Amino acid sequence: MVPVDSTDAVAHVVALAAEVRAAYADRPRRPLAVRARRRPGIAYDDLPNSLVDRAVEPGDADYRSVRSTYLRGGAPGLVLRPRTPAEVADAVAFARRHRHLPLGVRSGGHGISGRSTNDGGLVIDVGAMNEVEVLDEARRLVRIGPGATWKQVAAALDSRGWALGSGDYGGVGVGGLATAGGIGFLSREHGLTIDHLRAVELVLADGRRVRASREEHPDLFWAVRGAGANFGVATAFEFEVSEVGDVGWAQLVLVVPDIEAALQRYAELVAAAPRDTTVFLVTGRPRQGQWVVQLYAMVDSPDPDVVVERLTPFAGLGAVVQQEAVLTRYASVMAQAADVGARRSPRPGEPVSRSAFLPALTAGTAADLADLLRTGQVFFFQLRAMGGAIADVPADETAFAHRSAAFQATAMSADRASLDAAWDDLAKHFEGLYLSFDTDPRPERVGDAFPPAVLARLRRLKRAYDPENLFRDNFNIDPGVTDADDTDDTEGTDLTGATA
Ligand SMILES: Cc1cc2nc3c(=O)[nH]c(=O)nc-3n(C[C@H](O)[C@H](O)[C@H](O)COP(=O)(O)OP(=O)(O)OC[C@H]3O[C@@H](n4cnc5c(N)ncnc54)[C@H](O)[C@@H]3O)c2cc1C
């Protein structure tokens, strides 16, 4: 507001108006038809200059390709696509002025639990920041943008004989997975993806650009490795990657008459397998009283005899109806992901997915899981073998704390209420959940994702780094809640570390 109470003041207002006109003169004005489709509560005409060309709104031609994500239809009011950390900071500043709206942060757009799209809110999409760069050849240190897919990362590292374990699907983005955990085919041998992280650059809620590592903002570095979505927008990751040669890769399709026995046998075989061997089991609804079980297996060995020796026991789980076993590159396995990009065509709804860590797969667990599968309500059920190098890392090293789990289980269904009820009934077999595979929006799931002491520490850090809870859309650690383990002590939280 400028008080107009003198000739000088009038002149001042006139000059100001000219300044504003000049500042906005070269901005492309959207046609009326586009402006008509704008959503309420968004200051579309107040975008920072840096983002004017990087903004997509509902009436724009590009909107169709950015509104939804791989698994979830959406209709955000505005998608901002920054290309640099400075532009990300501008986008975060714009989001701060729109705190009343949902805010999605998107990298590869493959979030299952994530909310990287929404209805009527903002999305900051860092998909364009997808460079993969070698920083230090001797240390195998690489810098990766959040928008790269794991398929791109694997392809870039392969020529040097390197690999960075990610997950089982190359279409997934770096940003979402590397801020949550990363349980994949190389985890038993080389650890989770976050175990290779040496530094991360972030734009915080207040717009500061920080670098977190063991030396700089160590608390933040701890938090990002498991709960990253709550603390800012990651703009670059530095990973120390592994030397990985040819690997054995197999996909087996088996028919089993008794799913309970098959689950138990699978668990025994996993327990007996060396850490170079990782086998994931997938099944679904029964078919005419039988079960189709798919096994996806990686053996980190270039020796075909070792591969055959490791996989033969697993092939005995049932009648093999299809099999493929090859010696190949980790990058070739990641390359099997379809090139659909992050965005599929918009569609309503989203799959309902529940997740759990199993400390062990006992006879009782197998019996109860088999009962659930017999109901036919679960169309996709997966067990991921964990252990090995994942458990070598102390539980308090990262915010991802479920280091001692033997398996990670995921169940997907079309019906939220019945899956939630059935999954809740199985809770006695579970010890927490992996937030990347769970869509349950009930706030108590945050307590499953993080054990009490971890959650209390995260909450203290959230109060320090995002006290107004800007980043709240994905497994929100609400800074306003007080936990039993909470001492409300931010001592030791270094908020003054170096800027990137
Ligand atoms: C087909 C498929 C296979 C999968 N396989 C595996 C697997 O093998 N192992 C595994 O561990 N996970 C796996 N996942 C889960 C996957 O890791 C998570 O869904 C992950 O969040 C996807 O990352 P994204 O960047 O592609 O997703 P997005 O949809 O872009 O983001 C998901 C969420 O991550 C957060 N986020 C994204 N980018 C950033 C950023 N730059 N800074 C801060 N927070 C950010 C946001 O909260 C966002 O809502 C799989 C998912 C799919 C769909």
- For the biggest β-sheet, the strand order reads 15-12-14-13-17-18-16
Level-1 CATH class name of the domain at 247-446? Alpha Beta
> Radius of gyration, rounded?
24 Å
CATH topology of the domain at 247-446: Vanillyl-alcohol Oxidase, Chain A, domain 3
Mean pLDDT: 92
Strand element count: 18
Terminal residue distance:
36 Å
CATH architecture descriptor of the domain at 247-446? 3-Layer(aba) Sandwich
User: In this structure, how is the largest beta sheet organized?
Assistant: 7 strands, antiparallel
Share of β-strand residues: 15-25%
Structural class, judged by helices and strands? alpha+beta
Helix content: 25-40%
Unreliable parts: 489-500
**Hetero groups bound?**
flavin-adenine dinucleotide
Q: Choose one word for the global shape.
A: globular
Number of helices: 15
Describe this structure in words.
- The longest helix has 19 residues, at 7-25.
- By secondary structure, the protein is α+β, with helices and mostly antiparallel strands.
- Helix content is 28%, strand content 21%.
- The model is unreliable at 489-500 (pLDDT under 50).
- It has helices spanning 7-25, 32-35, 63-66, 85-96, 150-158, 174-177, 187-190, 218-227, 259-272, 304-315, 330-334, 363-374, 416-425, 445-449, 452-465; strands at residues 55-56, 78-80, 103-106, 122-125, 132-136, 141-144, 162-163, 197-203, 209-213, 233-240, 242-243, 247-256, 277-283, 291-299, 319-328, 352-358, 378-385, 407-413.
- It contains 15 helices and 18 strands.
- The strands form 4 sheets. The chain has a 7-stranded antiparallel sheet with strand order 15-12-14-13-17-18-16.
- The structure holds flavin-adenine dinucleotide (FAD).
- Residues 69-71, 104-112, 114-116, 126, 146, 167-169, 172-173, 175-177, 179-184, 228-229, 233-234, 436, 474 line the site of flavin-adenine dinucleotide.
